Amino acid sequence: MLDIRKPIIVVDDEPGTCEFIKAFLEDRGYTVFAGHNGQEGLDLIREKSPELILLDIKMPVMDGIEALGILRENDQVTKVVIITGVEDGDQIEQAKLLGVSCVLKKPLQLMELAKVLLEI
Fold first, then answer.
1. Considering its fold, how many domains does the chain have in total?
2. Residue at 3 is within a domain
3. What is the mean pLDDT of each run of 10 residues along the chain (120 residues)?
């Protein structure tokens, strides 16, 4: 179970998706920060030391797979959940090899996210 005192980082290039997830998590007492590309996400991760990262794959500047690879060079512990509309099995397989906790498909179902929060 997640420590509610530690932040969650949402990284997605769709502002509406970030706000949707952020509002859902904040309603449950979590502190949430959002970035809109992989580089912004990595900056937030370094600054905030989250317990969980919700990470999209397809984003400008730096995609989620590249950001995850950089994260895993220094941090094998932080939980990462991929949230994606990508159907490319290669990218999802790459994410799994980099140690993601799970993959959630877009459009994101909030009850599915709530279940994942309880399980990780």
1. 1
2. no
3. 90 96 96 97 97 96 96 96 88 95 95 94
